[in-house]
Design a protein that fits this description.
Helix content is 33%, strand content 17%. With 306 residues, it is α/β, with parallel strands linked by helices. It has a domain of 190 residues: 3-Layer(aba) Sandwich (Rossmann fold). The strands form three sheets. Strands 7-6-4-3-9-10-11 form a seven-stranded mixed beta sheet, with helices on both faces.
């Protein structure tokens, strides 16, 4: 991968086609949106169709494929991606701990794109993970895709003490901060972690359950990734028991893209039949969509995004 090292305080702005060069400009001033979530507000924020927030899986092929599809669908100026390797939901909320990723960071927005990655065996410079209010001060998304949760599994595998209430408070605050913009996103979809052979079924099911329970409570949607990817087979799915290889990542991304694109925010008829037939057509063992819908949503199909 090519590596571009930039100071975290600079924004990379694409150059004109004539010069073919990149220019560096200081980031715009933060806009304050209220006392509860400073900076979350949005009078000066730019409307975009889609925002993806994720970890190393969004840094890599999965996130790149999702980004590429929706840029083709909506246009390059309508899609934002923020991917911080090693991050978890608490690192993105306003009062969560500051997280400096040391294994890679990728940001792609209408203002430009930049990426830090390993180069010649050397780790990238540490980059601070942005907070949700900071992102929403710049961009106002209609749809938000969240791909986080895998890095919680490392922590849960290491410690038997699990404060479920604390984890779920983090999820609730994450969603609340996403909805602090005006108007709030019309749709939030949380892509649950794919299977990982490194972790026990109990650990993986715990993370899925926490997010899914909050989804039912707060009315956002989930996609059950492990029903798409199936069991992680070391040597076939990937090499480290967590990260999927490029081919498997693309398969996962293609189905997630189809589900998000096909089931838009409007109503139609016979959703469950469509979901089951599409899951079978894509080789899913079970219907991967969506545990987190409300009962009325589950009874109705969804049209393509507009």
């Amino acid at each position: 991968m090519k590596t571009i090292f930039l100071a975290a305080s600079l924004a990379l702005v694409p150059a004109t086609a004539r010069s073919g060069r990149l220019s560096l400009l200081p980031p715009p001033a933060t806009v304050t949106g209220g006392d509860k979530f400073p900076g979350a507000a949005v009078r000066m924020s730019v409307p975009v169709d889609l925002l993806l927030i994720g970890d190393s899986l969004s840094f890599g092929t999965f996130g790149q494929d999702v980004e590429a599809f929706f840029k083709r669908q909506f246009g390059a100026s309508a899609v934002c991606v923020y991917a911080s390797c090693g991050s978890s939901p608490e690192h993105w909320i306003s009062d969560g701990p500051e997280f400096m990723t040391s294994c890679g960071y990728r940001e792609s927005t209408p203002r430009g794109s930049w990426k830090v990655d390993f180069a010649r065996g050397k780790p990238p410079q540490p980059i601070r993970t942005p907070k949700i209010p900071e992102i929403l001060a710049k961009f106002r998304p209609q749809t938000v895709i969240v791909q986080l949760g895998t890095n919680w599994m490392d922590r849960l595998a290491e410690s038997p003490a699990r404060d479920a209430a604390a984890y779920k408070r983090t999820i609730r605050q994450f969603i609340t901060e996403l909805r602090a913009q005006s108007p709030p996103p019309s749709r939030i979809v949380w892509v649950l972690p794919p299977d990982a052979s490194k972790f026990s079924s109990e650990v993986k099911d715990t993370v899925d359950r926490w997010i899914s329970e909050c989804a039912k409570e707060m009315g956002f949607q989930t996609i059950i990734s492990n029903r798409i990817t199936g069991k992680y087979v070391p040597g076939k799915s990937g090499s480290d028991g967590v990260h999927l290889n490029d081919a498997e990542s693309s398969k996962w991304a293609n189905i997630v893209i189809w589900l998000i694109h096909a089931y838009g925010p409007e109503r139609a008829a016979s959703a469950s039949r469509i979901r089951r037939s599409s899951a079978i057509a894509f080789g899913c063992r079970n219907d991967p969509w969506p545990v987190g819908t409300t009962s009325s949503e589950a009874a109705e199909p969804r049209l393509p995004l507009e």
